[in-house]
């Protein structure tokens, strides 16, 4: 166990060295979440003058956009950091060391968490300054929402990484767009019952739908929907399991095809 | 007699109709330095990749330090290491950072002291704080060797260890490898196209052609058997199609 922690720690250091080496990279982490938050903050302010549901919960849109960014940054932080290994043709060295594939996955999850906290944390702090929106108004449920979205981001990240491991860096643009396919059915800015009947089951099969419905329940009704949290956690465990299985199967395929020593641009 | 450090039996790697490695049987004695030779496409890199466990064979078995590498590679990987000019280190990290990462992965005790030792040994301490991408090809090769020696491996696999080095640096590096091997009694398997290097460093040679072994033996034995002056000529004979049955008296 101590060996595993040491190796995961070594890889986390490896990724922190990259972050530490460039303030531009750190700035980039916070840039888009902040721009998104500012944009949706102004939209919220405009809508609030129209006496609609947003008037009851000023932070609804801004909270939605910040939580969505947790999901996006979690997936991106996981996938893009893995691509660093491909670009630097380092996979061959890594996998002839005692590092195991699941230890690499654990390191990617850790650095993804750190990157998300930097990016979304900055935007969340600025939301307080600009609009008086406190994400912490979600209370303890915020921790559950955050954890749930991180797990979902990692699940998608694992699938993206598996795809790129199999097909090479030419497929890495998938990392930037994969999660957006889920945005319309996640109910970020509107309730799931807004969707057509035939699409609702698809939405309810996603952990993100339960998180965003749960967020609205807290902000509009002051209710923590534990049932939603339970479904989100259950689905996340299922999808994370699938992601790990697909990643390990692809890793084995990469060993069979000799892709680990050939990876690169 | 102790078990060989490396034992390979019936090793094959086929990609569809292409037989990259086609039935290798060989062993490498503990504490020896063995060269894996052959022209481009002979199967050297494929064989090394299978020995490291990053490429799965189509069939056959590989035992390293008594462990089945296909079933228990994580038992033996901490006792091995590898260097190749075709596998790089992260470009954005400094030399020191890269070596720290690999030292931690191999759980090297007293890591900072070990890095200072390697820095002096390979003359890389002067550019410890430079980013890997800013290094010359020769400097990268030395850093790669530092990474390969970081855990004092019992089995060291080297793919063209002195490629891209000037003659002086290459000679010093061969000295480092020879001293390391003598001090630790490590087993070294190297793929090289530099025949004088093979004559100077290696106790044994395995010659590959078309994924098969076409000759084995000590360098001086092969030179005598092929009736040649040096390994360069032996290599050319084999590469140009002379089999052992055609050996000159």
Main β-sheet of chain A: number of strands, strand sense, barrel status? none
The fraction of residues assigned to DSSP E strands of chain B is 15-25%
Considering DSSP H and I runs of 4 or more, what fraction of the residues of chain B is helical?
25-40%
Total of helices of chain B:
9
Number of domains of chain A: 1
What can you tell me about this protein's structure?
- The complex is a heterodimer of chains A (265) and B (249).
- Chain A is mainly alpha-helical and 265 residues long.
- Chain A has helices at 2-20, 23-48, 60-87, 91-94, 101-131, 141-167, 173-177, 200-204, 207-221, 226-257.
- Chain A has one domain (2-257).
- In chain A, helix 1 crosses helix 5, helix 3 (60-87) packs parallel to helix 6 and helix 3 runs antiparallel to helix 9 (207-221).
- Chain A is globular.
- Chain B is α/β, with parallel strands linked by helices.
- Chain B has helices at 44-52, 73-76, 95-105, 111-121, 137-149, 167-184, 195-201, 219-225, 231-239; strands at residues 6-15, 18-28, 33-37, 59-64, 67-68, 80-83, 155-159, 187-191, 204-209, 212-217.
- In chain B, strand 4 and strand 5 form a beta hairpin.
- The two termini of chain B are 33 Å apart.
- The model of chain B has no long low-confidence stretch (mean pLDDT 91).
- The A-B interface holds A 3, 6-7, 9-11, 13-14, 17-18, 21-22, 84-85, 87-90, 92-100, 252, 255-256, 258, 260-261, 264 and B 45-46, 49, 52-56, 74, 77-78, 80-82, 84, 86-94, 97, 100-102, 104-107, 131, 147.
Write the layout of secondary structure elements.
The complex is a heterodimer of chains A (265) and B (249).
Chain A: H1 2-20, H2 23-48, H3 60-87, H4 91-94, H5 101-131, H6 141-167, H7 173-177, H8 200-204, H9 207-221, H10 226-257
Chain B: E1 6-15, E2 18-28, E3 33-37, H1 44-52, E4 59-64, E5 67-68, H2 73-76, E6 80-83, H3 95-105, H4 111-121, H5 137-149, E7 155-159, H6 167-184, E8 187-191, H7 195-201, E9 204-209, E10 212-217, H8 219-225, H9 231-239
Parallel strand pairs in B: 3-8, 3-9, 6-7, 7-8
Antiparallel strand pairs in B: 1-2, 1-4, 4-5, 9-10
